[in-house]
Amino acid sequence: MEAVSVTGSFRKLDRLIRFADRLRQPQFAAGLVKNLGQAALNQIDESFAGQKDPWDRPWKPSARAEATGGQTLRKSARLQRSMTSQSALKTDPQGFEIGTNVRYAATHQYGATITPKRKQTLRFRVGKDWVQARRVEIPARPFIPEPELSPRWEQALEEAARAYLEKEIR
């Protein structure tokens, strides 16, 4: 029988074994998911700040933004704040969910056609002027990638996972 020798750092091997044990703990998964969720919130914030979708295509400017020199979807920033606050993020060890209670979020994510319900025309203000229209087309201005992740989101989530793993392996 031939002798086998093993060389290397048993301290490093022991640390690796302890790290592998931590990977199975629910708090490890919970921490990783929270890190990923925060990265997603940051990506949403980046979309609003840059006025672009998750694929970095510019949003079509709103009539209000064009009339006033403001930014699209940033009149009060209510939607942005609702999507980037910690209260928008729900996590558990299986994953994370981002949501909002702002009723018009879906209109801006997917686009919509608005028509009057009781009158023949809609009447609303654009800048200082009142405007009437039979219908208004709101273009989609997505801030969450659907149905699949965009390259920017993939990279951000990979970086968040890598940073969390590097922090935990030490």
Automatic annotation (TrEMBL):
InterPro entries: Phage_virion_morphogenesis. It comes from Meiothermus taiwanensis WR-220. This is Phage virion morphogenesis protein. It holds the Pfam family Phage_tail_S. It comes from the Bacteria. Residues 69-89 have a biased composition (Polar residues). Residues 47-92 are annotated as: Disordered.
